[in-house]
Amino acid sequence: MAKQPLSRPLCAKVSRRSIIRRTLDVTILCLYLSLLGYRLLSLRNHGFPWLLALLCESWFAFIWLLALTTRWNPVEHKTYPQNLLPRLTELPPVDMFVTTADPVLEPPLVTINTVLSLLALDYPADKLACYVSDDGCAPLTFYSLVEASNFAKLWVPFCKKYKLQVRAPFQYFSAKYPTLPPHDDGLSSSGFKLELKKMKDEYEQLCEKIEDAAHNLTLGPHSADDYAAFHNIERNDHPSIVKVIWENKKESSSVILPHLVYISREKRPNHPHNYKAGAMNVLTRVSGVMTNAPFMLNVDCDMFASNPKIILEGICLLLGVEDEQECGFVQCPQIFYNLLKDDPFGNQMIVPFAIIGSGMAGIQGPLYAGTGCFHRRKTIYGLPPNHDTDYLEDAKILEERFGKSPEFTETVAETLFGRREKHFPCDISSTVEAACRVADCGYENNTCWGAEVGLMYGSVAEDILTGMRIHNMGWKSTFLMPNPPAFLGCAAPAGPVSMTQVKRWGVGLLEVFFSKQNPVLSVFTTELHLKQALAYLQILIWPINSISEFAYAALSAYCIITNSYFLPKVNELVMCIPVSIFLVSNLQSLSQYLHYEETFRAWWNYQRMARLNAVSAMLFACFSMLVKLLGWSESVFEVTQKGQSLSDDNEDDDKVGRFTFDESPIFVLPTTLLLVHLTAMALWLLRLRPPPRGGSNGSGLGEIGCSVWVVLSLWPFVRGLFGKGKYGIPLSIICMSAALALPFCSII
User: Fold this and answer.
1) Can you give the pLDDT at residue 348?
2) Which of 126, 137, 170, 267 has the largest count of CB atoms under 10 Å?
């Protein structure tokens, strides 16, 4: 990897500061301060609603102030992959990780499409190795990967011959992609069509084999020895299984593919396995023993590569900096492919991710999002930048930190001290036994794994913790948002599944916030920058924001029912302040969506779902965290259901995009809030409210407008009140919500 003269840059850093946006940001902050000043000066003349409004608006102003730490420093990075070869004598190796945990919630067809898209990337195959972690220890997943490797011998050459842009087969064969060669390289169109038909037939046969195996529990005509390791084992009680599905040996095949390795780490009852973080640490150790590439890419099983040059772009950022401290890892945004028009469920977070990611990139770098990320191996090993490694020369210290595997500690020394001895492609079959040992569940005992080495333990948001630890050491990170997108994933279907996912995120963020790794504390003891800590703080207290949002949302209904008020009257000049905050903040948000070529309806759907998630999943996450802090329960990592289609093809057109419900208690609070607002509006329309208190004029158009806004934000629940089946709110949820709403509505 010797470098040539730096005449051709690999990447460039571009500032995206905007005077107009900064002016709007300051305007909104000044409006908040003006409103808070007005409420404080008039607090004596008003009652409880005024005080509650003051507390909520103070919190909103604080959140807005925190947001300015990221919004004012947007940075984008451009990459120049065409300059790699002139700069390097050879490209560096990369280890690719794919994690899956449940063959039912994460079907093998989803996993193999991700694996096939990675195997077909535009990067030298002898420099790549793909490791698949199966925490479900499912023979079906292993069988699917074996069959996929056979299909890859046809699919990968086909993709590279015709320079296909989309290299996940299920996505390429969908109707919306063209069937003609994307480039005119003198290749025969008729020849392409013949090969395309062959590829499609082969892929359909692959799908049929996997579906038959799933339904009939038969794994095809493979050797019994291949599946002996899966006999008489249980999902949570089995030894380590490491199998080389495909080894890149140039002399053994005319088709060159990256290494493909299946891993199912050892699990035993009553032994903590630390969820995805534990699986990722096993992948790190196994890959270290086998190939020990200096860079690692990890993706979830449903995040297929949609940009065939993404590794080249990631390497540009990792190698294009003058000091490696400037780029410890490269994070790509999470973007989804299986969304309906205008994203009715608000799943697509391109705009929020771009704003936060590019904003943090202007400080110390974006957070680690758990998928779509390139890491330097040494950052995962817990090595600070430009750090003295002499003390690690001691073999005993290496064993205490990394475990008692001579094979693994030897490769650790190669990584930490820059002594690369492995030559690609590696002979990985000879290392299987050593790889199994480092995948044992007791290997991490009395080591630094999960604390100072590898992904961090202690939270279901292991990605946030790990990224923060890397920043604490002094590393910076880079945000990469290429066109076309780097990876495309599968969005959770709206309803119970997506709510569970959001709740899991919320619990994970709160676990970090209430831990010793709180970023505010880290500022005084680590290399974490103050502005970076504030950016992290803004993200970590996202669930806590739901408390103020719920209280503020309920306040207008309370005022209507009691005929009191929390907003100035329409004929008062000061009413311009809250109205201006509402209009300016929403118009600014809308302009950002339009800037990223999103529609007005997509913006509204995201705003609506953000409010809905705040008063349901995030509020439930706060309750869950409170229970954990009291010692009554522990958090559990919940796997989100994956698939290749968001909606059922058999659904009626009027049901597509409809919110679904079940009897989960997560739906109780938003349903309660909706019933309270509907009751308040009915009392206002029927003029059944009590007389105003304290000689005031009572609630006015401001409170009515707020109530209407809340009902519009909860519109999926309005439809759910009258829906049937899974599209209707269950009667048990309505009854519980009515019981909670009754005391609130009976205060008149």
Assistant:
1) 79
2) 137
Question: Do residues 544 and 27 touch, judged by C-beta distance below 8 A?
Answer: no
CA-to-CA separations, 295 to 94, 376, 377, 563, in angstroms, rounded: 5, 5, 5, 63
- The crossing angle, in degrees rounded to 10, of helices 668-685 and 715-722 is 90
Question: Is 126 among the catalytic positions?
Answer: no
> Which among 731, 745, 711, 612 has a CA at the least distance from the CA of 670?
612
CA-to-CA distance for 188 and 193, rounded, in angstroms?
A: 9
| Cβ atoms 248, 256 nearer than 8 A | yes
- Say what the pLDDT of residue 646 is: 42
CA 535 remoteness from chain centre: 17
Q: Which pair of tokens denotes residue 300?
A: 């979830």
**543 preceded by cis ω (within 30°)?**
no
pLDDT at residue 422 in the model: 58
Q: Which residues does 626 contact at the CB level (< 8 Å), separation at least 6?
A: none
The predicted structure's pLDDT at residue 693: 66
> Is there a catalytic annotation at residue 427?
no
Cβ-count burial of 550 within 10 angstroms (0-12 exposed, 13-18 middle, 19+ buried)? buried
| Distances 114 to 170, 352, 489, 747 between C-alpha atoms, Å | 10, 25, 9, 56
User: What pLDDT is stored for residue 181 in this prediction?
Assistant: 60
Sheet holding 335-336, edge to edge: 304-305, 487-489, 335-336
Q: Are 279 and 265 a contacting pair, CB within 8 Å? A: yes
Partners of residue 78 on adjacent β-strands: 12
Provide the pLDDT for residue 609. 92
Residues of the chain with pLDDT under 70: 1-7, 175-188, 217-225, 250-254, 389-392, 419-425, 634-655, 693-696, 747-748
Which runs of consecutive H residues, i.e. helices, occur in 458-599? 462-472, 496-513, 519-525, 530-540, 545-562, 576-595
CB-CB contact of 517 with 634 (8 Å): no
How is residue 301 written in tokens?
Answer: 């099983």
Collapsing DSSP states into helix, strand and coil, what is residue 266? coil
Question: Is 494 exposed, middle or buried, given 0-12, 13-18 or 19+ CB atoms closer than 10 A?
Answer: buried
Q: Supply φ then ψ for residue 663, to 5 degrees.
A: -90, 20
Out of 102, 134, 135, 302, the active site residue is 135
Task: State residue 647's pLDDT score.
Answer: 47
Residues 89 and 279: beta-carbon distance below 8 Å? no
Peptide bond into 86 cis (omega under 30): no
Among all chains, which residue has been given the structure tokens 């009751």? 679
pLDDT, tens only, 521-547: 999 999 999 999 999 999 999 999 999
Spatial neighbors of 421 by CB under 8 A, at least 6 apart, are 414
Closest CA to 329 of 339, 321, 317: 317
- The answer to whether the beta carbons of residues 450 and 457 sit under 8 Å apart is yes
* Helix 462-472, helix 496-513: angle, nearest 10: 30
Nearest Cα to 648, choosing from 719, 727, 578? 727
The predicted structure's pLDDT at residue 218: 65
Give me the amino acid identity at 498: S
pLDDT for 187: 63
Provide the β-strand partners of residue 330.
374, 478
First to last CA, the chain: 76
Q: Cα 518 from chain centroid?
A: 20
Report which of 288, 295, 292 is spatially closest to residue 329, judged by C-alpha positions: 295
